[in-house]
Amino acid sequence: MAATPWDGELPQQLKARFGGKISDYSTYLGQNFVVATPDAVIPILEFLKLEGDFDYLVDITAVDYPNRPERFDLVYILYSFARNERLRVKCMIADGDKPATAVPVHTGANWLEREVFDMFGVQFAGHPDMRRILLPEEWQGFPLRKDHSIIQQDDRWVKENLGIESGQ
Amino acid sequence: MPETTFLDSTELVLNMGPQHPSTHGVLRVILKLDGEKVNGTECVIGYLHRGVEKIGENRTYQQFAPYVDRMDYVAAVSNGLGYCLAVEKLLNIEAPPRAQATRVILTELNRIASHLLWLGTHALDIGAITPVFYCFREREEVLKIFENYCGARLTTHAFRIGGLQYELYDGFEKQVNDFCDMFLPKVEEYEELLTNNRIWVNRLKGVGILNGDECKEYGVTGPVLRAAGVKWDLRKAQPYSGYEQYDFEIPTGENGDTYDRYLVRMEEMRQSVRIIRQATAKIPAGPIGKTPKVIKPPTGEAYVSIEAPKGELGYFIVSDNSTQPYRVRVRPPSFVNLQALDRMVRGGLIADVVAIIGTLDIVLGEVDR
Fold first, then answer.
1. Which strand (E) or helix (H) includes residue A42?
2. Domain extents for chain B?
3. In Å, how far is A19's CA from the nearest CA of chain B?
4. Contact check, Cβ <8 Å, B312/A107
Protein backbone atom coordinates (compact mmCIF):
# COMPACT_ATOMS: atom_id res chain seq x y z
CA MET A 1 0.00 0.00 0.00
CA ALA A 2 1.53 3.24 -1.10
CA ALA A 3 0.77 6.78 -0.14
CA THR A 4 -2.12 8.33 -2.03
CA PRO A 5 -2.55 12.01 -2.92
CA TRP A 6 -4.40 14.09 -0.35
CA ASP A 7 -6.98 16.53 -1.58
CA GLY A 8 -9.46 18.67 0.24
CA GLU A 9 -10.08 22.12 1.58
CA LEU A 10 -6.91 22.40 3.64
CA PRO A 11 -4.50 21.31 0.88
CA GLN A 12 -6.18 23.84 -1.41
CA GLN A 13 -5.64 26.60 1.13
CA LEU A 14 -2.02 25.58 1.57
CA LYS A 15 -1.52 25.43 -2.20
CA ALA A 16 -2.93 28.91 -2.62
CA ARG A 17 -0.73 30.26 0.15
CA PHE A 18 2.55 28.41 -0.33
CA GLY A 19 2.45 27.21 -3.95
CA GLY A 20 5.64 25.47 -4.97
CA LYS A 21 7.09 25.43 -1.47
CA ILE A 22 5.04 22.36 -0.70
CA SER A 23 5.94 19.56 -3.07
CA ASP A 24 3.74 16.76 -1.83
CA TYR A 25 0.30 16.30 -0.27
CA SER A 26 -0.21 12.68 0.70
CA THR A 27 -2.22 10.29 2.81
CA TYR A 28 -0.83 7.03 4.08
CA LEU A 29 -2.93 4.69 6.26
CA GLY A 30 -5.39 7.53 6.74
CA GLN A 31 -2.73 9.94 8.01
CA ASN A 32 -2.12 13.16 6.13
CA PHE A 33 1.27 14.70 5.58
CA VAL A 34 2.88 17.39 3.47
CA VAL A 35 6.46 17.71 2.32
CA ALA A 36 7.78 21.26 2.24
CA THR A 37 11.04 23.09 1.63
CA PRO A 38 12.93 23.75 4.90
CA ASP A 39 12.53 27.54 4.75
CA ALA A 40 8.75 27.22 4.42
CA VAL A 41 8.20 25.01 7.44
CA ILE A 42 7.91 27.69 10.11
CA PRO A 43 5.56 29.91 8.03
CA ILE A 44 3.46 26.79 7.39
CA LEU A 45 3.31 25.98 11.10
CA GLU A 46 2.32 29.57 11.80
CA PHE A 47 -0.31 29.58 9.06
CA LEU A 48 -1.73 26.27 10.27
CA LYS A 49 -1.83 27.52 13.85
CA LEU A 50 -3.53 30.83 13.09
CA GLU A 51 -5.76 29.94 10.14
CA GLY A 52 -6.13 26.19 10.42
CA ASP A 53 -6.53 25.75 14.19
CA PHE A 54 -3.57 23.37 14.37
CA ASP A 55 -2.68 24.79 17.76
CA TYR A 56 -1.02 21.79 19.36
CA LEU A 57 2.48 20.76 18.32
CA VAL A 58 2.57 17.10 19.27
CA ASP A 59 6.12 16.24 18.41
CA ILE A 60 9.23 17.14 16.46
CA THR A 61 11.55 14.38 15.41
CA ALA A 62 14.04 13.44 12.73
CA VAL A 63 14.88 10.38 10.65
CA ASP A 64 18.38 9.79 9.32
CA TYR A 65 18.97 8.57 5.76
CA PRO A 66 22.79 8.65 5.46
CA ASN A 67 22.86 7.81 1.74
CA ARG A 68 20.77 10.80 0.74
CA PRO A 69 22.28 14.21 -0.03
CA GLU A 70 19.64 15.76 2.22
CA ARG A 71 20.38 13.45 5.01
CA PHE A 72 17.63 14.12 7.55
CA ASP A 73 13.86 14.14 7.46
CA LEU A 74 12.50 16.59 9.98
CA VAL A 75 8.98 15.64 11.03
CA TYR A 76 6.56 18.00 12.76
CA ILE A 77 3.42 16.34 14.06
CA LEU A 78 0.49 18.70 14.56
CA TYR A 79 -2.95 18.29 16.00
CA SER A 80 -6.01 20.51 15.90
CA PHE A 81 -8.40 20.38 18.84
CA ALA A 82 -11.11 22.13 16.85
CA ARG A 83 -10.92 19.80 13.84
CA ASN A 84 -9.83 16.67 15.73
CA GLU A 85 -7.28 16.06 12.98
CA ARG A 86 -3.62 15.32 12.76
CA LEU A 87 -1.18 16.54 10.17
CA ARG A 88 2.51 15.93 9.64
CA VAL A 89 4.79 18.50 8.06
CA LYS A 90 8.04 17.10 6.76
CA CYS A 91 11.13 18.62 5.24
CA MET A 92 14.51 17.33 4.17
CA ILE A 93 17.72 18.94 5.31
CA ALA A 94 21.41 18.22 4.74
CA ASP A 95 23.98 17.65 7.47
CA GLY A 96 25.08 21.06 8.77
CA ASP A 97 21.92 22.87 7.70
CA LYS A 98 20.37 25.01 10.39
CA PRO A 99 16.60 25.01 10.05
CA ALA A 100 14.73 27.80 11.83
CA THR A 101 13.37 27.10 15.27
CA ALA A 102 9.65 26.62 15.88
CA VAL A 103 9.80 28.08 19.40
CA PRO A 104 8.27 31.47 18.46
CA VAL A 105 5.23 29.63 17.08
CA HIS A 106 4.93 26.81 19.63
CA THR A 107 6.67 27.27 23.00
CA GLY A 108 6.67 23.52 23.49
CA ALA A 109 9.11 23.08 20.61
CA ASN A 110 11.95 24.08 22.92
CA TRP A 111 12.77 20.70 24.45
CA LEU A 112 11.71 18.75 21.38
CA GLU A 113 14.24 20.60 19.23
CA ARG A 114 16.88 20.19 21.88
CA GLU A 115 16.31 16.46 21.76
CA VAL A 116 16.64 16.42 17.97
CA PHE A 117 19.93 18.28 18.34
CA ASP A 118 21.07 15.91 21.07
CA MET A 119 20.33 12.77 19.09
CA PHE A 120 20.97 13.87 15.50
CA GLY A 121 23.19 16.95 15.69
CA VAL A 122 20.72 19.18 13.87
CA GLN A 123 21.10 22.75 15.12
CA PHE A 124 18.08 25.02 15.06
CA ALA A 125 18.74 28.65 14.15
CA GLY A 126 17.31 31.14 16.63
CA HIS A 127 16.62 28.56 19.33
CA PRO A 128 16.82 30.22 22.77
CA ASP A 129 18.78 27.41 24.42
CA MET A 130 20.45 25.10 21.90
CA ARG A 131 22.11 22.60 24.22
CA ARG A 132 22.00 18.86 24.70
CA ILE A 133 19.13 17.71 26.85
CA LEU A 134 19.42 14.00 27.65
CA LEU A 135 23.15 13.38 27.21
CA PRO A 136 25.84 15.23 29.17
CA GLU A 137 26.78 18.57 27.67
CA GLU A 138 30.39 17.61 26.81
CA TRP A 139 29.38 14.33 25.16
CA GLN A 140 30.72 13.77 21.64
CA GLY A 141 28.65 12.06 18.97
CA PHE A 142 25.00 11.87 17.99
CA PRO A 143 23.58 8.47 18.88
CA LEU A 144 20.54 8.26 16.63
CA ARG A 145 22.52 8.81 13.43
CA LYS A 146 22.66 5.61 11.44
CA ASP A 147 26.48 5.59 11.29
CA HIS A 148 26.60 5.58 15.09
CA SER A 149 26.78 1.99 16.25
CA ILE A 150 24.55 0.81 19.09
CA ILE A 151 27.51 -0.03 21.36
CA GLN A 152 29.52 3.06 20.43
CA GLN A 153 30.00 5.64 23.15
CA ASP A 154 32.13 8.60 24.07
CA ASP A 155 34.99 6.68 25.73
CA ARG A 156 36.85 9.80 26.72
CA TRP A 157 33.86 11.21 28.59
CA VAL A 158 33.21 7.91 30.34
CA LYS A 159 36.87 7.63 31.38
CA GLU A 160 37.11 11.20 32.63
CA ASN A 161 33.81 11.37 34.44
CA LEU A 162 33.15 7.85 35.62
CA GLY A 163 36.74 6.64 35.99
CA ILE A 164 36.09 3.40 34.16
CA GLU A 165 37.38 2.11 30.82
CA SER A 166 34.00 1.43 29.29
CA GLY A 167 30.37 1.64 30.20
CA GLN A 168 29.61 -1.58 28.34
CA MET B 1 31.03 50.90 45.34
CA PRO B 2 27.63 50.94 47.01
CA GLU B 3 27.51 49.94 50.61
CA THR B 4 25.83 46.62 51.15
CA THR B 5 23.77 45.81 54.15
CA PHE B 6 22.58 42.48 55.41
CA LEU B 7 19.10 43.26 54.12
CA ASP B 8 20.22 43.17 50.49
CA SER B 9 19.22 39.94 48.94
CA THR B 10 20.88 38.36 45.99
CA GLU B 11 19.61 35.43 44.02
CA LEU B 12 20.29 32.10 45.60
CA VAL B 13 20.81 29.09 43.37
CA LEU B 14 19.72 25.89 45.00
CA ASN B 15 20.14 22.43 43.61
CA MET B 16 17.25 20.05 44.15
CA GLY B 17 17.89 16.45 43.24
CA PRO B 18 18.76 14.23 41.44
CA GLN B 19 18.51 12.21 44.64
CA HIS B 20 15.65 14.09 46.23
CA PRO B 21 12.77 11.88 47.39
CA SER B 22 10.05 14.15 46.08
CA THR B 23 11.38 14.31 42.54
CA HIS B 24 10.03 10.76 42.02
CA GLY B 25 13.19 9.50 40.43
CA VAL B 26 16.33 11.14 39.22
CA LEU B 27 15.17 14.61 38.26
CA ARG B 28 17.46 17.48 39.05
CA VAL B 29 15.91 20.93 39.31
CA ILE B 30 18.10 23.99 39.68
CA LEU B 31 16.08 26.62 41.52
CA LYS B 32 16.81 30.30 41.41
CA LEU B 33 15.46 31.70 44.65
CA ASP B 34 14.77 35.07 46.11
CA GLY B 35 14.16 34.11 49.71
CA GLU B 36 11.24 31.69 49.59
CA LYS B 37 10.17 32.85 46.15
CA VAL B 38 11.13 30.92 43.02
CA ASN B 39 12.40 33.18 40.24
CA GLY B 40 13.17 30.47 37.75
CA THR B 41 14.08 26.85 37.30
CA GLU B 42 16.13 24.69 35.06
CA CYS B 43 15.52 20.98 34.73
CA VAL B 44 18.47 18.68 34.23
CA ILE B 45 17.29 15.36 32.90
CA GLY B 46 18.80 12.34 31.20
CA TYR B 47 20.08 10.41 34.20
CA LEU B 48 17.98 7.42 33.16
CA HIS B 49 18.66 7.70 29.44
CA ARG B 50 19.06 4.20 28.01
CA GLY B 51 18.70 4.96 24.33
CA VAL B 52 15.37 3.18 23.93
CA GLU B 53 14.85 4.58 20.43
CA LYS B 54 18.28 3.34 19.32
CA ILE B 55 17.57 -0.09 20.78
CA GLY B 56 14.33 -0.14 18.80
CA GLU B 57 16.22 0.30 15.53
CA ASN B 58 18.41 -2.66 16.37
CA ARG B 59 15.75 -5.17 17.37
CA THR B 60 12.96 -6.81 15.46
CA TYR B 61 9.43 -5.53 15.98
CA GLN B 62 8.64 -8.36 18.40
CA GLN B 63 11.91 -8.06 20.30
CA PHE B 64 11.40 -4.37 20.97
CA ALA B 65 7.96 -4.81 22.57
CA PRO B 66 9.25 -5.71 26.08
CA TYR B 67 11.55 -2.67 26.05
CA VAL B 68 8.70 -0.19 25.81
CA ASP B 69 7.37 -1.40 29.18
CA ARG B 70 10.49 0.01 30.77
CA MET B 71 9.74 3.60 29.86
CA ASP B 72 6.72 4.44 31.98
CA TYR B 73 7.20 1.50 34.31
CA VAL B 74 4.18 2.32 36.47
CA ALA B 75 1.93 2.12 33.40
CA ALA B 76 3.67 -0.59 31.38
CA VAL B 77 0.44 -1.93 29.94
CA SER B 78 -0.35 1.43 28.32
CA ASN B 79 3.10 1.62 26.77
CA GLY B 80 2.68 -1.85 25.34
CA LEU B 81 -0.76 -1.06 23.98
CA GLY B 82 0.50 2.05 22.18
CA TYR B 83 3.37 0.17 20.60
CA CYS B 84 1.21 -2.77 19.50
CA LEU B 85 -1.35 -0.39 17.97
CA ALA B 86 1.37 1.48 16.09
CA VAL B 87 2.85 -1.69 14.56
CA GLU B 88 -0.64 -2.98 13.81
CA LYS B 89 -1.38 0.28 12.03
CA LEU B 90 1.73 -0.16 9.85
CA LEU B 91 0.70 -3.73 9.10
CA ASN B 92 -2.86 -2.52 8.51
CA ILE B 93 -4.33 -5.19 10.80
CA GLU B 94 -6.58 -5.00 13.82
CA ALA B 95 -6.74 -7.16 16.91
CA PRO B 96 -9.88 -9.34 17.20
CA PRO B 97 -12.71 -8.08 19.48
CA ARG B 98 -11.87 -10.42 22.34
CA ALA B 99 -8.31 -9.15 22.42
CA GLN B 100 -9.49 -5.55 22.24
CA ALA B 101 -11.84 -5.92 25.21
CA THR B 102 -9.08 -7.56 27.24
CA ARG B 103 -6.71 -4.78 26.30
CA VAL B 104 -9.20 -2.17 27.49
CA ILE B 105 -9.72 -3.93 30.83
CA LEU B 106 -6.01 -4.31 31.54
CA THR B 107 -5.16 -0.80 30.38
CA GLU B 108 -7.84 0.73 32.56
CA LEU B 109 -6.69 -1.36 35.53
CA ASN B 110 -3.23 -0.01 34.83
CA ARG B 111 -4.57 3.55 34.78
CA ILE B 112 -5.97 2.94 38.25
CA ALA B 113 -2.65 1.51 39.43
CA SER B 114 -0.76 4.46 37.97
CA HIS B 115 -3.11 7.02 39.53
CA LEU B 116 -2.91 5.23 42.87
CA LEU B 117 0.85 5.43 42.86
CA TRP B 118 0.56 9.10 41.96
CA LEU B 119 -1.94 9.77 44.74
CA GLY B 120 0.05 7.98 47.40
CA THR B 121 3.37 9.62 46.62
CA HIS B 122 1.84 13.04 45.95
CA ALA B 123 0.10 12.99 49.33
CA LEU B 124 3.29 11.78 50.98
CA ASP B 125 5.22 14.71 49.49
CA ILE B 126 2.70 17.11 50.93
CA GLY B 127 2.85 15.51 54.34
CA ALA B 128 -0.10 13.12 54.45
CA ILE B 129 1.36 9.77 55.43
CA THR B 130 -1.75 7.56 55.50
CA PRO B 131 -2.87 7.63 51.83
CA VAL B 132 0.30 5.99 50.57
CA PHE B 133 -0.42 2.82 52.55
CA TYR B 134 -4.06 2.78 51.49
CA CYS B 135 -3.12 3.31 47.82
CA PHE B 136 -0.46 0.63 47.76
CA ARG B 137 -2.88 -1.79 49.39
CA GLU B 138 -5.37 -1.41 46.54
CA ARG B 139 -2.67 -1.20 43.88
CA GLU B 140 -1.49 -4.59 45.04
CA GLU B 141 -4.84 -6.09 44.00
CA VAL B 142 -4.39 -4.73 40.48
CA LEU B 143 -0.88 -6.11 40.29
CA LYS B 144 -2.19 -9.50 41.40
CA ILE B 145 -4.55 -9.53 38.43
CA PHE B 146 -1.63 -8.74 36.13
CA GLU B 147 0.43 -11.47 37.75
CA ASN B 148 -2.34 -14.00 37.34
CA TYR B 149 -2.77 -13.01 33.74
CA CYS B 150 0.80 -12.89 32.47
CA GLY B 151 3.14 -13.70 35.33
CA ALA B 152 4.59 -10.20 35.68
CA ARG B 153 3.52 -7.43 37.99
CA LEU B 154 5.15 -4.29 36.67
CA THR B 155 6.77 -4.68 33.27
CA THR B 156 4.04 -6.93 32.07
CA HIS B 157 4.48 -7.23 28.29
CA ALA B 158 0.82 -8.23 28.41
CA PHE B 159 -0.03 -7.76 24.74
CA ARG B 160 1.41 -8.99 21.48
CA ILE B 161 1.34 -7.40 18.07
CA GLY B 162 -1.90 -8.61 16.53
CA GLY B 163 -3.65 -9.54 19.75
CA LEU B 164 -2.76 -11.30 22.97
CA GLN B 165 -0.30 -13.96 23.95
CA TYR B 166 -2.45 -15.61 26.61
CA GLU B 167 -6.09 -16.59 26.85
CA LEU B 168 -7.84 -15.17 29.92
CA TYR B 169 -7.50 -17.37 32.98
CA ASP B 170 -10.49 -18.98 34.72
CA GLY B 171 -12.08 -16.56 37.12
CA PHE B 172 -10.62 -13.46 35.49
CA GLU B 173 -13.97 -11.71 35.21
CA LYS B 174 -14.80 -12.51 38.81
CA GLN B 175 -11.49 -11.26 40.13
CA VAL B 176 -11.80 -8.04 38.12
CA ASN B 177 -15.40 -7.48 39.23
CA ASP B 178 -14.50 -8.18 42.83
CA PHE B 179 -11.77 -5.60 42.54
CA CYS B 180 -14.22 -3.04 41.14
CA ASP B 181 -16.70 -3.69 43.96
CA MET B 182 -13.97 -3.38 46.53
CA PHE B 183 -12.31 -0.36 44.95
CA LEU B 184 -15.08 2.22 44.60
CA PRO B 185 -15.67 2.59 48.39
CA LYS B 186 -11.90 2.92 48.76
CA VAL B 187 -11.90 5.98 46.51
CA GLU B 188 -14.45 7.48 48.88
CA GLU B 189 -12.10 6.65 51.69
CA TYR B 190 -9.22 8.54 50.07
CA GLU B 191 -11.50 11.46 49.40
CA GLU B 192 -12.61 11.50 53.02
CA LEU B 193 -9.00 11.74 54.04
CA LEU B 194 -8.04 14.47 51.62
CA THR B 195 -10.68 16.36 49.68
CA ASN B 196 -11.89 18.58 52.51
CA ASN B 197 -8.77 18.29 54.62
CA ARG B 198 -7.78 21.82 55.48
CA ILE B 199 -4.03 21.30 55.10
CA TRP B 200 -4.53 19.48 51.79
CA VAL B 201 -6.77 22.21 50.40
CA ASN B 202 -4.46 25.00 51.55
CA ARG B 203 -1.42 23.37 50.02
CA LEU B 204 -3.14 22.62 46.70
CA LYS B 205 -5.68 25.34 45.88
CA GLY B 206 -4.33 28.00 43.56
CA VAL B 207 -0.92 26.35 43.35
CA GLY B 208 0.81 25.72 40.03
CA ILE B 209 -1.90 27.13 37.80
CA LEU B 210 -1.66 26.23 34.12
CA ASN B 211 -4.59 27.39 32.03
CA GLY B 212 -5.89 25.76 28.88
CA ASP B 213 -4.06 28.02 26.43
CA GLU B 214 -0.77 27.55 28.22
CA CYS B 215 -1.29 23.79 28.14
CA LYS B 216 -1.82 23.86 24.39
CA GLU B 217 1.16 26.13 23.91
CA TYR B 218 3.41 23.64 25.70
CA GLY B 219 1.70 20.54 24.33
CA VAL B 220 0.69 19.45 27.81
CA THR B 221 -1.92 16.66 27.75
CA GLY B 222 -3.66 14.24 30.05
CA PRO B 223 -5.18 15.11 33.42
CA VAL B 224 -3.21 18.38 33.53
CA LEU B 225 -4.93 19.59 30.36
CA ARG B 226 -8.34 18.39 31.52
CA ALA B 227 -7.96 20.09 34.89
CA ALA B 228 -7.52 23.34 32.95
CA GLY B 229 -11.03 22.89 31.58
CA VAL B 230 -10.21 21.42 28.17
CA LYS B 231 -12.46 18.45 27.64
CA TRP B 232 -10.11 16.36 25.57
CA ASP B 233 -9.32 12.72 25.92
CA LEU B 234 -7.96 10.58 23.08
CA ARG B 235 -10.21 7.73 24.15
CA LYS B 236 -13.15 9.93 23.10
CA ALA B 237 -11.53 12.13 20.46
CA GLN B 238 -9.96 9.35 18.41
CA PRO B 239 -11.16 6.08 19.93
CA TYR B 240 -8.99 2.99 19.62
CA SER B 241 -9.42 -0.60 20.79
CA GLY B 242 -13.18 -0.19 20.86
CA TYR B 243 -13.40 2.62 23.43
CA GLU B 244 -16.33 4.04 21.46
CA GLN B 245 -18.52 1.19 22.80
CA TYR B 246 -18.12 2.21 26.40
CA ASP B 247 -20.03 4.81 28.28
CA PHE B 248 -17.87 7.13 30.36
CA GLU B 249 -17.37 10.78 31.19
CA ILE B 250 -14.30 12.95 30.79
CA PRO B 251 -13.84 14.74 34.10
CA THR B 252 -12.60 18.31 33.81
CA GLY B 253 -11.56 21.00 36.23
CA GLU B 254 -12.00 24.76 36.14
CA ASN B 255 -8.99 26.48 37.58
CA GLY B 256 -6.13 24.36 36.29
CA ASP B 257 -4.52 24.30 39.71
CA THR B 258 -3.09 21.41 41.68
CA TYR B 259 -6.35 20.83 43.53
CA ASP B 260 -8.33 20.48 40.29
CA ARG B 261 -5.77 18.04 38.92
CA TYR B 262 -6.25 15.99 42.08
CA LEU B 263 -10.03 15.96 41.62
CA VAL B 264 -9.74 15.08 37.94
CA ARG B 265 -7.53 12.07 38.63
CA MET B 266 -9.80 10.86 41.43
CA GLU B 267 -12.78 10.99 39.09
CA GLU B 268 -10.79 9.28 36.33
CA MET B 269 -10.30 6.28 38.61
CA ARG B 270 -14.07 6.02 39.05
CA GLN B 271 -14.59 6.32 35.30
CA SER B 272 -12.01 3.60 34.72
CA VAL B 273 -14.00 1.31 36.99
CA ARG B 274 -17.07 2.13 34.90
CA ILE B 275 -15.27 1.15 31.70
CA ILE B 276 -13.88 -2.03 33.25
CA ARG B 277 -17.33 -3.11 34.42
CA GLN B 278 -18.84 -2.59 30.98
CA ALA B 279 -16.00 -4.40 29.28
CA THR B 280 -15.95 -7.41 31.62
CA ALA B 281 -19.72 -7.78 31.29
CA LYS B 282 -19.39 -8.60 27.61
CA ILE B 283 -16.01 -9.92 26.67
CA PRO B 284 -16.70 -11.29 23.19
CA ALA B 285 -15.93 -14.92 22.47
CA GLY B 286 -13.57 -15.78 19.68
CA PRO B 287 -9.89 -15.82 18.88
CA ILE B 288 -7.39 -13.69 20.80
CA GLY B 289 -5.34 -12.91 17.73
CA LYS B 290 -2.26 -14.48 16.32
CA THR B 291 1.10 -12.78 16.23
CA PRO B 292 2.60 -13.01 12.78
CA LYS B 293 5.87 -14.99 12.90
CA VAL B 294 7.68 -12.51 10.70
CA ILE B 295 6.69 -8.87 10.90
CA LYS B 296 7.69 -6.90 7.84
CA PRO B 297 5.47 -3.86 7.43
CA PRO B 298 5.47 -2.24 4.00
CA THR B 299 7.67 0.82 3.56
CA GLY B 300 6.01 3.84 5.13
CA GLU B 301 5.48 5.63 8.38
CA ALA B 302 2.69 6.08 10.87
CA TYR B 303 2.04 7.97 14.09
CA VAL B 304 -0.30 6.34 16.57
CA SER B 305 -1.07 7.66 20.02
CA ILE B 306 -3.14 6.60 22.98
CA GLU B 307 -4.38 8.23 26.15
CA ALA B 308 -1.87 6.96 28.68
CA PRO B 309 -2.46 7.77 32.37
CA LYS B 310 -0.11 10.74 32.02
CA GLY B 311 -1.24 12.14 28.69
CA GLU B 312 -0.78 11.50 25.00
CA LEU B 313 1.67 8.69 24.43
CA GLY B 314 2.61 8.44 20.77
CA TYR B 315 4.71 6.16 18.63
CA PHE B 316 6.06 7.35 15.29
CA ILE B 317 7.44 4.35 13.44
CA VAL B 318 9.19 4.36 10.07
CA SER B 319 9.35 1.03 8.29
CA ASP B 320 11.69 0.14 5.44
CA ASN B 321 10.05 -3.23 4.76
CA SER B 322 12.48 -5.15 6.93
CA THR B 323 12.00 -7.03 10.18
CA GLN B 324 13.42 -4.15 12.20
CA PRO B 325 11.91 -0.69 12.44
CA TYR B 326 13.96 1.91 10.58
CA ARG B 327 13.12 4.47 13.23
CA VAL B 328 11.02 4.37 16.37
CA ARG B 329 10.17 7.65 17.97
CA VAL B 330 8.36 7.72 21.28
CA ARG B 331 6.41 10.84 22.12
CA PRO B 332 6.40 10.62 25.90
CA PRO B 333 3.77 12.58 27.82
CA SER B 334 6.02 13.04 30.88
CA PHE B 335 8.83 14.66 28.89
CA VAL B 336 6.53 17.18 27.25
CA ASN B 337 4.55 17.88 30.43
CA LEU B 338 7.70 18.42 32.48
CA GLN B 339 8.63 21.30 30.21
CA ALA B 340 5.79 23.32 31.70
CA LEU B 341 7.27 23.00 35.20
CA ASP B 342 9.11 26.28 34.87
CA ARG B 343 5.94 28.16 33.98
CA MET B 344 4.06 26.57 36.87
CA VAL B 345 6.55 27.21 39.67
CA ARG B 346 7.78 30.66 38.63
CA GLY B 347 6.71 33.25 41.19
CA GLY B 348 5.55 30.60 43.63
CA LEU B 349 7.06 29.40 46.86
CA ILE B 350 9.80 26.83 47.18
CA ALA B 351 7.55 24.50 49.17
CA ASP B 352 5.13 24.43 46.25
CA VAL B 353 7.77 23.08 43.88
CA VAL B 354 7.37 19.70 45.54
CA ALA B 355 3.59 19.84 45.16
CA ILE B 356 3.88 20.83 41.51
CA ILE B 357 6.35 18.10 40.57
CA GLY B 358 3.98 15.66 42.24
CA THR B 359 0.91 16.95 40.45
CA LEU B 360 2.57 16.73 37.03
CA ASP B 361 2.81 12.98 37.62
CA ILE B 362 6.03 12.36 35.75
CA VAL B 363 7.97 9.14 35.52
CA LEU B 364 11.63 9.69 34.85
CA GLY B 365 11.99 6.43 32.98
CA GLU B 366 9.73 7.94 30.38
CA VAL B 367 11.23 11.43 30.47
CA ASP B 368 14.71 10.11 29.78
CA ARG B 369 13.92 6.93 27.85
1. helix A41-51
2. 51-337
3. 25
4. no
